[in-house]
Amino acid sequence: xxxxxxxxxxxxxxxxxxxxxxxxxxxxxxxxxxxxxxxxxxxxxxxxxxxxxxxxxxxxxxxxxxxxxxxxxxxxxxxxxxxxxxxxxxxxxxxxxxxxxxxxxxxxxxxxxxxxxxxxxxxxxxxxxxxxxxxxxxxxxxxxxxxxxxxxxxxxxxxxxxxxxxxxxxxxxxxxxxxxxxxxxxxxxxxxxxxxxxxxxxxxxxxxxxxxxxxxxxxxxxxxxxxxxxxxxxxxxxxxxxxxxxxxxxxxxxxxxxxxxxxxxxxxxxxxxxxxxxxxxxxxxxxxxxxxxxxxxxxxxxxxxxxxxxxxxxxxxxxxxxxxxxxxxxxxxxxxxxxxxxxxxxxxxxxxxxxxxxxxxxxxxxxxxxxxxxxxxxxxxxxxxxxxxxxxxxxxxxxxxxxxxxxxxxxxxxxxxxxxxxxxxxxxxxxxxxxxxxxxxxxxxxxxxxxxxxxxxxxxxxxxxxx
Length: 467
Known about the structure:
Elements: H1 2-20, H2 25-40, H3 42-52, H4 61-79, H5 86-118, H6 123-152, H7 166-189, H8 192-198, H9 210-217, H10 221-242, H11 244-251, H12 256-268, H13 270-309, H14 319-358, H15 363-392, H16 405-427, H17 437-449
Helix pairs in contact: 1-6, 1-7, 2-5, 2-15, 3-5, 3-9, 3-15, 4-5, 4-7, 5-15, 6-12, 6-13, 6-14, 9-15, 10-14, 10-15, 10-16, 12-14, 13-14, 13-16, 14-15, 14-17, 15-16
């Protein structure tokens, strides 16, 4: 599911609509922001509803089950608009089916993310859980990218500009999303009974109070810091992933084999990433571990673009350049994946902190907030990516190797030094995050000592945590 969504929205969609279908990058970016703003409104609502749902199939699984088939259908449709729509019709199709796809994905991802916070309360075990979750997500995503980019859209098959191949691409992405969603549902169904037994009180407010609960969650200082940091990273991700194909095709001029090689390099980074996440968290806590891994990963990620910009690396399209980029990407991805593992595990701790203060276990609300804070900045990142393409001077149908040097220089400044500044913006809020393992255990212990367990909503016990 995750790999299919990311390949579609984060990598293929902007390139396909801009290079093949002829929509301007700016127009695509505006459409992406509109879609994600509309979609983001549904996040707190779905989180609130899934917190309050009571069925024999659990709170989360019914929403996941009803969304998997619509997700697959919408994924296919958004990538394959009918011919002859014109600019206005094409833009409308892009916005409409992107929005439908995103809403259906919300129905799946918010409850699914809530499950991750509920399966365990152990501080370190959460890091391991998110490590396996992200590892399998990356593995499936990279295998799917190798199939689509290395075979279906290979140079021998007409390349990324082969519009007739996108029907098959859409079918593959839709099929993988459907199968992945079913596996997620079936694979966690055996835990429904355990979740029933451990289920804690959620909000008893009516559904229209969902946005109020989301705002209330922002009263937690550590969640505000987490939110700001995640939003900056979402902006970074929106730009970087939307421009990855332009970078590989135009900036580095890599062949299909070299692109597949980079995917294999990322696969090789999964093991050190898992180790780095556990090692750094055990020694310095999650906030510092997240800051350090993001700093190193971001420096190497923006660094290889900057080094090429400065003329330090070999010429585009050469084997020597590939070896350099492969090494730098391996380090970059090892640390960035470790960051994602640590970041993902932090939300469960925040859920517990909030529950200890209010007596309400709002995993759905916080999962919705986590999804929400990734969407808006990501949409702005897509808008920025479209602007970067237009400002740099990319035009539809440009063949690799024929792009003027000035265009590539402007592109490199944005994607290299520019994105590293955004990385520093994502790191800064983590400096003030103070929900350590010891502090979380102390909070739980003090509440147990009082004999109150988790306090009821409305109490003001421990209000020093709301700053």
